[in-house]
Amino acid sequence: MNDPESGDAPATAAVLVIGDEILSGRTQDTNTRYIAAYLAQIGVDLREARVVPDDEPEIVAALNALRARYTYVFTTGGIGPTHDDITPDAVAKAFGVEIGEDPRAIAMLRERFTEEELNPARRRMARIPRGAELVRNGASKAPGFWIGNVVVMAGVPVIMQSMMDTVGPMLRSGAVIAVETLDAGAIPEGSYAMGLEEIARVHERVSIGSYPRFTAEGIRNQIVLRSRDAAGLAAAREAVRKLLVELAASA
Amino acid sequence: MNDPESGDAPATAAVLVIGDEILSGRTQDTNTRYIAAYLAQIGVDLREARVVPDDEPEIVAALNALRARYTYVFTTGGIGPTHDDITPDAVAKAFGVEIGEDPRAIAMLRERFTEEELNPARRRMARIPRGAELVRNGASKAPGFWIGNVVVMAGVPVIMQSMMDTVGPMLRSGAVIAVETLDAGAIPEGSYAMGLEEIARVHERVSIGSYPRFTAEGIRNQIVLRSRDAAGLAAAREAVRKLLVELAASA
Q1: Burial of A230 by CB count in 10 Å (0-12 exposed, 13-18 middle, 19+ buried)?
Q2: In B, which residues are within 8 Å of A29 by CB distance?
Q3: What distance in Å separates the CA atoms of residue A14 and residue A5, rounded to the nearest whole number?
Q4: What is the pTM of this model?
Q5: Which domains does chain A have, with CATH numbers?
Q6: Distance between B7 CA and the closest CA of chain A, angstroms
Q7: What number is the ipTM of this complex?
Q8: Per-residue pLDDT for A65 more than 60?
C-alpha cells in the first residue's frame, strides 16, 4: 500500500459495504465477516464497518470519513458492468482525481472476453481512477483497485475473496491478537458477571466479552478473551476458568 | 415514538450494531438484515448501517451522527449484565441525560428472577437512561428501551426480534416499496447492461439493480426492480422482461 503510517501501533481498518441490496434486506452481507476474520489473522484491527446505498454522495462522504481515520479502508460492491455500479466514479470523486478507461484493465478483461464481447458495458469495468493500482482477481478477471489507503473490491463473495488474497500480502501486518474461548455452558451470565468484571479490571490488557446464545437446550454462554499480550491472556484465562469451576461446583 | 417528523416523505432509518464480536470476525451479524427486511415490510427506508466496537466514545459519536440524520435509529448489542455491556450508558451520554436503575425494569426482571438471583450484575440490566420508554421482550424479560428517535435492543437475535415485534407497530409506517425480481439466468450482465441502463433512464422512479451469483452451474444473474410507483414498476418490469427474451432468442 502507499506508505501507510509506520511505527509499532497496529494497523487499523474499516469496511465499507456499498449496495442497496444489503439495506433492503434482500441480501445477507457476509463480506464484512470474511474481511474481519482475514484481517484478524494478519494482525490488522478492524475498527468499524458501514453499509451505504448505491448513491454517489453517500459513498463519497462515508469513504472520506473512513479513509481519514483508519490505516486501510476496504470497500465491497458496485464495480460491475451495470448502471448501478457506481463505486469507481464515487471513489475518484472522493479522491478528487479523474477516472477513465485503463489499458491495463482492458488487457485483463481480454483474458476473458473476445473483442466482440468487450462491449461498452463490459469496458465500464475498466474504468479506474487515475493513480490507482489494479487488484487482480482470478475468478472473473475484472480487477479491483487500490488508491491511497483504499482497496476497492467486488461485492460477489468469491470475487472479493480472490481480491483479498491478492492484496493481503501487501498489507502492513502486525502482532496477531490471540483469542481464547471458554465455554460457560448453562451458567447464567448474571451469575458470573461480577467475577468476570473483576478479572477484566485486573487484566486490563485483555479484552473480555461474554456472549449468550439461545439453543434448543436453553441459553448457552461463551466467554471470549482477546489480547496481544500472551502472558496476560494466559493469566486471565486461568482466572476465568477458576471462576467457572467455582460457580459450577456451587450450582 | 416521540413525535417523529410528519408529512408524506417515507420514514428513514439507520441500524447501529454494537459489538467487538462482529468486528473480530467471531460472529456473523444477522440482525441488520432482519431489521432491514422488517422495515421494508412497513415502508420505512433503511438508509445506512454501522458496526462499532464496545467503546463508549465510538458508540456516542456514531449514535449522534445517525440520530441527527434519520427518522429512527435501531441499535443492537451491549445491554446485558456483563461489564462489556456499555450501550445504555453510552446512549445516556449521547443524549446528555442521567442513567439509573429503573423501577419498571426491575419489575420486569422480577418476572424471571427471584430476589436472590437479582444480584448487582442482573440489576445492571435495569439501568435505563432518564426519559426513556421501556421495550418489552418476551424472550428474556430484560427490556430494551427507546429514547428520542433511538430504539435500543439486544444483540442476541431472538431477543432483538422480540423487541422489534414490540416497537414495530409504533413506528411511522408508509407506502411499502414493491419489489419485482426477474431471473436473467445465464445471460451475462455485460450483455444486458446497456439495455438495462436505458430502461433505468426511462423509468426513473424505479430503482433497478443487477445481482450476479456464482453457482455450481456458473454465474446466474437476477435483476431486481423496486418502486413505490406501481404503474411505473409494472412498465419497467415488462421492459426488462422483453429485453431478456430478446437476448435469450439471439443467444
Answers
A1: exposed
A2: 29, 32-33
A3: 15
A4: 0.95
A5: 12-170 (3.40.980.10), 178-250 (3.30.70.360)
A6: 22
A7: 0.94
A8: yes
